[in-house]
Amino acid sequence: FFPPQVLLLACAEDLECVPGFQQKVFYIEKPFEFTEDQLVLKMKFDDCKGNNKLNFEVSNPDFTVEPDGNLVALKNVSEVGRALFVHARSEHAEDMAEIFILEANEKRGALKEILKLEGNLGIPRQKRAILATPILIPENQRPPFPRLVGKVIRSEGTEGVKFRLSGKGVDQEPKGIFRINEMNGDVSVTRTLDREAIANYELEVEVVDTSGKTIDGPVRLDVAVIDQNDNRPMFKEGPYIGHVMEGSATGTTVMRMAAFDADDASTDNALLRYNILKQTPTKPSPNMFYIDPEKGDIVTVVSPALLDRETMESPKYELVIEAKDMGGMDVGLTGTATATILIDDKNDHAPEFTKKEFQATVKEGVTGVIVNLTVGDRDDPATGAWRAVYSIINGNPGQSFEIHTNPQTNEGMLSVVKPLDYEISAFHTLLIKVENEDPLIPDIAYGPSSTATVQITVEDVNEGPVFHPNPMAVTKQENIPVGSVVLTVNATDPDTLQHQTIRYSVYKDPAGWLEINPTNGTVGTRAVLDRESPFVQNNVYTALFLAIDSGNPPATGTGTLHITLEDVNDNVPSLYPTLAKVCDDAKDLRVVVLGASDKDLHPNTDPFKFELSKQSGPEKLWRINRLNNTHAQVILLQNLKKANYNIPISVTDSGKPPLTNTTELRLQVCTCKKSKMDCSATDALHISLTLILLSLLSLFCKSF
Question: Which residues are in coiled coils (predicted)?
């Protein structure tokens, strides 16, 4: 405690008696705990008339003032707040004293600083009718309840009046936590409080008369819930995974561990300290890492040489981290989490071939993988420091070989991409280099073991004969005589070191027009070539031939022949349509437009010449007019009776020599009424112009 000469700040030194406390303001240093029956302070009250019926009231129910003015604790108390208020009343005077409780590190001694502290507390110095000092209540108190926690004092007495309490925790949710004794102002709590749920309550207290009318107030009454260390530290942000590069310098920060404590952050209840409880594995050192007890930063503490991923038992370390509150004291609560630290690889090992020379055998004419080259690399297989990149640095001028990395095994897959020819070269020697995807660190280089030789032997196989050229092309007129020579094919055997004979045969001849001499390869016709055949596409007929050598087993080559057929005028033109209808009373006597077509090609097609056979009788019945190169129009010269008429029409193409085709156009003359054409009766009448001419000729002959 402060000595009396220091605690005394405001007292009356007058020789005359002044009613009230002789010292109204006190400052004491807060101990670790006020113990039961401990004398806290001596106060002196004098009403200058004998102090008859003197009574003291203390704002905190855990303290009392004895009749002689001694302030004592009624039990062991650790939290009392920043101030205590003592109200004294006798028959002739009343007064109030204030006791401020300072932390051990707070500055004291200067009146200016003390008054500043007093101002910061927000406690007015003027006289108040209602004195409602802040109430401090520890959380997690055990029954019995209700429990007295504070007192509201009215300086003008409590006779004929009542205290009324309101606010959150009284008449607002959560209701019923606090209540006040209407008669004497005692404040009680009815249940256990949880600071982490609600840390502060702002209540209001007022004094009312018996009718409920407010006399004094309302005055604010603050209730603060004192934190207890009832929450363990928790690691909420896991999983905690950190990475550090192998060979990192001592003191390299790996990661930060941060725990959370729900207790009051301004108290030691939430003051955390970190510690490593366990490291797995324990090699090459049981203390590979250190954690900053205050910040939670994990750093390396071993030399770079020990932080070598390739020599470690495992590149993964697991640390059990403990967070303890109360600043790490033994009484603190703890929480743990596991930190996983991965030692990341750097490319400090070059890949090396498992042997200096590899052998491979491949048949000529075959492509694909011929050998897998194996390498070793001590770096992490999951990184570019392990993954291999192969290249052919010598022996591949024709780009016949390629090499690729097998992503699963890291082997080099050497492939033939262009077929090899035994007759050109039976042996190949390749020089292969291997590197990593990632560059090596500066003090490491690729050595002789990063190159290897591949000896490749090409095996001879019986290759099929090859046609020259292939495909073969020739142009011939259609309709050439059977037995005509089309061409002579030529095939050679690539196996120049073998002496083999070649025989020829027809492989595919869709129309059956061709034959081939099996010895000399002469292709001739055995049927007429027809350009208009459905087997001819775009004037080209395609056939396939085989060349078979005498090897064992024999090998076969295929040749393709394209015959372009030139057109000759071997198709007569055709006429369309061959049926027309007209009304017997038609005003428009243009009966039909005729068209002509020809399977041949120009100039053996249009322009076409359209003609009518000669008409006999007293007058002509129709005529034909040419419209263009391919069409003509038949026109009646007069209306005809209902009947069928056959009109012979000849069409001639422009070929040399030209070809003519005569076609009968059947003309039906029908009855037409109300836009309906009736041709049914015409079937009974078949009047042929040809028959009429023959009948007239017969009558003419008999008359002579």
Answer: none
Angle at 175 between CA 174 and CA 181, to 5 degrees: 135
Name the nearest CA neighbour of 428 among 404, 403, 450, 400: 400
Tokens standing for residue 677:
């054409």
For the four alpha carbons of 36, 38, 39 and 41, in that order, the dihedral sign comes to: negative
- Of 442, 457, 491, the residue at which a domain comes to its end is 442
CA distance 84 to 507: 120
186-189 and 178-180 strand pairing: antiparallel
Whether the upstream peptide bond of residue 174 has omega within 30° of 0, thus cis, is yes
CB burial readout 220-255, b (16+ within 10 A) else e:
ebebebbbbbebbbebeeeebebebebbbeeeeebb
Q: What's the pLDDT at 153?
A: 87
- The total domain count for the chain is 6
Residue in 303, 337, 296, 301 with CA at minimum distance from that of residue 320: 337
- CATH classification at residue 88: 2.60.40.60
User: 3-class DSSP state for residue 171?
Assistant: coil
Tokens standing for residue 571 = 């198709």
In the chain, the amino acid numbered 635 is I
Residue 226 in tokens: 């004192």
Edge to edge, what strands does the sheet with 556-566 contain? 472-477, 556-566, 540-549, 502-508
Residue 122: the pLDDT is: 40
Place of tokens 């391919």: 630
Q: SS3 of 470, please?
A: coil
Residue for token pair 């020990």: 306
Are 664 and 586 found together in one domain? yes
pLDDT tens for each residue of 588-641: 889 899 999 998 888 989 999 999 877 655 568 889 999 999 999 999 988 888
CA distances from 280 to 239, 320, 338, 642 (A): 17, 9, 11, 116
In a 3-state reduction of DSSP, which class is residue 101?
strand
Helix (H, G, I), strand (E, B) or coil at 156: coil
